[in-house]
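Comment thread on ticket #2218

A.B. wrote:
> Attaching the input chain for the structure job we discussed in standup.
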Amino acid sequence: PPREASGASKQMRCATREATTSHLLSVFHAPTVPTTDSCPHQAPESSKRQRSDGSSLHPEEAARKGDADALRALAEQGFNIETPSTDGCTPAYIAAEMGHLQVVRVLAELGASVETPDNWGSTPAFVAAANGHVDVLSLLAELGASVETPDNDGCTPAYIAAQEGHAQVLR
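C.D. wrote:
> Ran it. Output below, let me know if you need it in another format.
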């Protein structure tokens, strides 16, 4: 399952959740702990709709593909643009994870929350930081999202960015 790690692995990754920036930067010289922060993006059946060509389309798919126009069209048709996957990943979370700046912006314009965490407490800001998407993280902050909210293990976006080698997020 995503985000499962051994006790030792979690302890190593999150033991210093109160760490200073200098400590975070020292993490770059340590071996990284493999993580599987990515949600499987499985949309619940209730959020899927049939398109005229018979194929399914849902907001998670549009977010993953970076298709802001499709999300607008889905919202205009009354689709719920905040329906999470079985792991709690909303379209805003998926867009932030994938680095789709325009999709995050459109979802916020359409009224979607940009702070809803997944089942592990990881927010869109957390996954943007974990993947080095500085522009998305900046937009989330502009939209009022907290960029300091820790996940359920106590890891902050800054800590996971350092752990994943994304120094640009710490600037």
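A.B. wrote:
> Thanks. Noting for the ticket: Confidence is low (pLDDT under 50) at residues 1-47, 49-55.
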